[in-house]
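Sync notes, pocket subgroup
Present: LS, DG
LS reminded everyone that the earlier model was apo-only. Rerun requested with zinc ion included. Inputs:
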Amino acid sequence: MTISVATLMVFLGVIHVQSSLSRPVGGTVTVEVHLVPHSHCDAGWLITDEDHFRREVRVALDSIVASLSLLTNPTYRFVWAETIWLQKWIATSDNSSVQALRTLVQSGQIEIVGGGWTMNDESVAEYRDVIEMITTGHEFLRQQGLSIVRLGWQIDMLR
Ligand SMILES: [Zn+2]
């Protein structure tokens, strides 16, 4: 019997099948699907940071923290990449919301990936800027006690 393994990754509605499915005649195929809800909030893209935070990022982080705090299923997770928005959100949120964020990060329900101040562009960034941006983000996370970055994250490649 052939065991089929398929990994589906969903990023902004684009589905990539990483391995081909094979199914024995008359058999069944089990497909395990992992949905990875994640941030992709490019600081400085088209509008100012302040407008971006006020119009979109604030409500996104509010709803992510509130939703995950209310859910009783610890397997529900969210991946966040850009620390600039965490800084703005923490600076403007009440203590109970910030504590909820810390609890979700410690439990792994919110995972901070990459941890740079922003997620840099891959095609035109100068390496010293990338190092500075990652260092700044990690330093902020360390100061906030949120320095649990285990994975790199780069989904803004090859424009
Ligand atoms: Zn982008």
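DG: Confidence is low (pLDDT under 50) at residues 1-19.
LS: Residues 49-143 form a domain with the Methyltransferase, Methionine Synthase (B12-binding Domains); Chain A, domain 1 fold (CATH 1.10.1240.90).
Action: DG to write up.
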